[in-house]
Amino acid sequence: MQKTRITIWNEFRHEKTQPEIAAIYPEGLHRAIGKGIAADDFEITYASLDEEEHGLPDEVLNNTDVLLWWGHCAHFEVRDEIVAKVLKRVHEGMGLIVLHSGHLSKIFRQVTGCSCTLKWREEAERERLWNIAPTHPITQGIGEYFEIPHEEMYGEYFDIPKDGNIIFIGHFEGGNVFRSGVTFERGYGKIFYFQPGHESYPVYYQEEVLKVISNAIRWAKPVFFKELECPRTPAIDKIYSENTGPVTGIVQNADGTAK
After folding, report:
1. Under 8 Å between Cβ of 61 and 156
2. What angle do CA 211, 213, 217 make, to 5 degrees?
3. What is the pLDDT of residues 77-93, one digit of tens each?
4. Could you give the domains of the chain?
5. What is the pTM of this model?
6. What would the pLDDT profile of 29-67 be if each residue is shown by its tens digit?
7. Max CA separation in the chain (angstroms)
8. What is the DSSP letter of 209?
9. At 149, is the secondary structure helix, strand, or coil?
10. Residues 131, 247: contact at Cβ < 8 Å?
11. How far apart are CA 172 and CA 241, in angstroms?
């Protein structure tokens, strides 16, 4: 069995500087996710912001099938050349799963071409996530909905591309709704944005959340890797139309109208 090679990238700052966050995720959010999704068909590695090349040198990216991304307070510290390499890899087929506050990460804004802004408040609200795509591979085993006891509210308007396929809609205790699970395709790569996962709450220990992430990894696994090109290509069939030479402009009549 060929394993899916997963790299879980975490900013890994809150856990180092805030004791209340470290108490929830003592080894970091990335390792909590990794332990929660561990499976026989997954090969998991970890990377974080403060490592050399943010933990994403070429040898890591070139051996990653699906990249998970969690960031929050230091998006601006991610070097543009690393983002460019990740984007190129997505276009070539690598899956990308962006979690929670990663909506404002450079890579998600690059891959969507949008500001990815939204409304928010942190008041430990209950969130109910409705499964509105019951036949989608990511929603399998989830049921009609599931609830997160305490979560940061993310609310509309969420500035993302209109071609996103919405599979979860979140409803918060305070009344707001949000497109909490959305998929995209860019180049040969598949992308999934999944909203739950504020660092102040133990969301990444919840069974349903981990199930969604595991399903998303299997969905986003590349069919192949191939560099995007823009080649001049020969005709497949014989061309019978007359070649009159290159078009240099619009041919006009004496009165200036086009012929």
Report:
1. no
2. 115
3. 999 999 999 999 999 99
4. 4-113+181-220 (3.40.50.880)
5. 0.91
6. 999 999 999 999 999 999 999 999 999 999 999 999 999
7. 83
8. H
9. strand
10. no
11. 62
